[in-house]
Amino acid sequence: MSADKKRALGRGLSALLDDTSDNSTATAAVAGRPQQPHNVVSDSDLAGAGSVNEININEIEVNPFQPRTEFEPEALQELSDSIKLQGLIQPITVRRVSAHHYQLISGERRLRASKLAGLKHIPAYVRSANDQQMLEMALIENIQRENLNAIEVALSFQRMLDECNLKQEELGERVSKNRSTVTNYLRLLRLPPAIQAAIRDGQVTMGHAKALITINDPTRQLYINQQIIEQGLSVRKVEEMVRAMQKAPEKKESRPAAAEGLSFQMKKIQDDLASKFSTRVQLKVDQKGKGAIEIPFLSADDLHRILEMLDW
């Protein structure tokens, strides 16, 4: 790994790895010119830290802390085809749990593609790391990916705060981002689930989301979100709509006492309905199980949209 690349990963990852001897070996490996043959690891023989080891691919379990859950099949197949022709150029990183048992720290995409290519052994750096270090390394490595969507980044940031006991300033140092950038990502997780899904699926951009976050009313957020998807609104247009809404007096709605006592199952139904109709839905249920469903709308067009979804 070159010095520039290592700096790009952030000081936190370098500190966690704490292994300056890797630079020359990694650089040569990436260039396809390993300094020395990979060490084939056996039960009683494990090469020292900093060297590249050939490990039985069936002895590696995926990282239980891996924040990335989706891998594009087409891109995975392309990498697999490349591995078949040229081998795996960039080693994965693992920690040894016991004899014949390794846990992946980083490189799950490479591991999956190697299995797809039919490899029996895979080059890997073997390191020592506790669970928190593993989580932090996996999260930092994952955050550096260019194709990660904003929600995945936000979830990774939140996990680092919650599970690694970091403050926002420390998190920013770990991932080489300023605090305001970290804060903007974390604020995405306050948006309704339907909007988070739209960001994840690429229907709504980070620019759109920043504008939506400034609206306090989830019903209005969901309404504009739906307009973005259906009409392909630009970020500037959304910002204009948000400013207009903020100038208009906001109707304060009283939350019925019955809603406070909803069961977990009823709250889930309420959230699912809100996602389906892209507006805040309210369930009112009494002690006998009787109740009502309220679906608010912001305009005649919004009402027409909801009625169409109900096949009215």
Plain-language structure description:
By secondary structure, the protein is an alpha/beta fold. Among the domains are: 3-130, Conserved hypothetical protein from pyrococcus furiosus pfu- 392566-001, ParB domain, CATH 3.90.1530; 257-309, no CATH class. It has 16 helices and eight strands. It has a six-stranded mixed β-sheet with strand order 1-2-6-4-5-3, with helices on both faces. The chain has a two-stranded antiparallel sheet with strand order 7-8. β4 and β5 (101-106) form a beta hairpin. α4 (73-86) crosses α5 (108-116). The N and C termini lie far apart (61 Å).
Describe the structure using short key phrases.
single chain, 312 residues, alpha/beta, Conserved hypothetical protein from pyrococcus furiosus pfu- 392566-001, ParB domain, 6-stranded mixed sheet, 51% helix, chromosome partition, Chromosome_partition/occlusion, ParB/RepB/Spo0J, ParB/RepB/Spo0J family partition protein
The helix-strand sequence is HHHEEEHEEHEHHHHHHHHHHEEH
Helix content: 40-55%
The description of the largest β-sheet is: 6 strands, mixed
Category from helices, strands and their pairing = alpha/beta
> From the structure provided, what is the oligomeric state, counting identical versus distinct chains?
single chain
End-to-end distance: 61 Å
CATH third-level topology of one domain: Conserved hypothetical protein from pyrococcus furiosus pfu- 392566-001, ParB domain
Q: Determine Rg (CA atoms, Å).
A: 25 Å
Protein name: ParB/RepB/Spo0J family partition protein
Organism: Mucilaginibacter jinjuensis
InterPro entries: Chromosome_partition/occlusion, HTH_ParB/Spo0J, ParB/RepB/Spo0J, ParB/Sulfiredoxin_sf, ParB_dimer_C, ParB_N
Keywords: Chromosome partition, DNA-binding
